[in-house]
Design a protein that fits this description.
The complex is a heterodimer. Chain A is mainly α. Chain A has helices at residues 41-52, 56-77, 81-97, 104-119, 128-143, 150-172, 177-184; strands at residues 10-13, 18-21, 30-32. In chain A, strand 1 and strand 2 form a beta hairpin. The two termini of chain A are 27 Å apart. In chain B, a hairpin with a 4-residue loop joins strand 7 and strand 8. Classes of the chains: A mainly alpha, B alpha/beta.
């Protein structure tokens, strides 16, 4: 538990850099176990996560309401650093959390909203309906998830919103190549 | 075959979202970890880092006061009294190439894009426990070697200069350890 002192640090110097190695302080945390070992920490964690799932609906409702509240504040006060930041943070949290909570389409809609906030040259110039549709989509997906047909509808809705948002952003950033590149670039990080 | 003895690992998790902290805590406890400390912003995390001396830091990027990127930069101070070598796993909703590069250049050890999964988190922890990379110190960088492979064929502008580069071998338990997943 980080109680052992780290081993001797070895430094090799080169012209422009130093390479520093130390004996792996965490090596002792690796246990050699027989092939027959049946312990499955990943499976155990997935079960524990499933055990939490009864709370996910409530959590998502809280996150969606936070997003709506941030949007309402931005409408009331206009877009400034504070309102923009809070709207982005609320959308960004949903983008990151919603798929884990079983709402992948809400995550997709939130991601699309994040892209608008991050890449629109002037947020005040973004059509108000475009932002409102994203907020409403997240709310609708979260509130109506229990209906059998909503998974497909939610997926189509998110995809259409993303298409419209990307079209807007591509046009709005036609003279800003660094943003255009970011908008068009695919995600490079594997989820697992 | 190798497994991680989570029972002996001390974690610090930093995320401003209480739901995500709960998810992380649940996953880590399920893996077998007993010591999991939580912070909801970068400043608190830095204080806890100094106080509890965690073995592994798991941090979100976007947070109030100062964010996960700044936290990584503050931990990676070679002259600091604390441990500048602790593995840092950045868990974030950001997954654009530019962001990954910025995180890497701040000294982040592993990057895990949300949505989180038990398998993804376990693999990142296994990576930092079984296969630590040497640290590199230059005028502008201090952190784990940003090269993920050891070929000397790269000749581009970011190649480190000044003669032969010596690759210091680390105990390679990763492949053996991976077989346990």
């Amino acid at each position: 538990m980080a109680k052992d002192k780290p081993g001797t640090i070895e430094v090799k110097s080169f012209g422009t850099h130093h390479v520093i190695t130390q004996p792996n302080p965490l090596r002792k945390m690796l246990l050699r176990v027989p092939e027959s070992d049946l312990d499955d920490p990943v499976g155990r964690a997935e079960k524990a996560l499933a055990g939490l799932s009864s709370e996910f609906k409530e959590w998502m409702t809280i996150e969606a309401d936070r997003l709506s509240a941030a949007h309402a504040t931005a409408l009331r006060e206009g877009f400034n650093d504070k309102t923009r930041e809070e709207l982005f943070r609320a959308a960004h949290d949903i983008k990151g959390d919603a798929a884990t909570f079983g709402y992948p389409s809400a995550a997709a809609a939130a991601e699309s909203l994040c892209r608008i906030i991050e890449h629109a040259p002037d947020l005040a110039a973004v059509p108000a309906q475009l932002i409102a549709h994203h907020i409403n989509a997240v709310q609708a997906i979260v509130r109506n998830r229990t209906k059998l047909d909503t998974a497909v509808v939610a997926g189509v809705l998110s995809k259409q919103l993303r298409g419209i948002a990307d079209e807007f952003l591509t046009h709005a950033n036609r003279d800003r190549p660094e943003h255009l590149e970011a908008i068009l670039a695919p995600s490079i990080v594997p989820g697992e | 075959m190798y497994r991680i003895d989570f029972n002996k690992l001390r974690f610090l998790i930093c995320d401003d979202n209480p739901h995500m902290r709960r998810i992380l805590r649940t996953l880590l406890h399920s893996f077998g970890a007993r010591e999991v400390y939580e912070a909801e912003d970068g400043a608190t995390a830095l204080e806890m880092y100094t106080h509890y001396v965690p073995d592994i830091v798991i941090t979100d990027w976007s947070m109030p006061i100062f964010d996960g990127l700044e936290l990584a930069q503050m931990i990676r101070q070679p002259e600091s009294k604390g441990n500048p070598y602790a593995p840092i796993i950045m868990l974030t909703g950001h997954s654009e190439k530019r962001r990954v590069t910025v995180a890497r250049d701040a000294g982040v050890t592993e990057f895990l894009a949300k949505p989180i999964s038990a398998k993804g988190l376990y693999q990142r922890i296994m990576n930092v426990v079984a296969n630590p990379r040497p640290f590199i110190k230059t005028k502008t960088y201090f952190g784990p070697d940003r090269r993920r492979n050891t070929t000397n064929t790269y000749i581009g502008p970011e190649r480190r200069g000044s003669g032969e580069v010596e690759v210091l071998q680390q105990p390679s338990l990763l492949e053996k350890a991976r077989s346990s997943i």
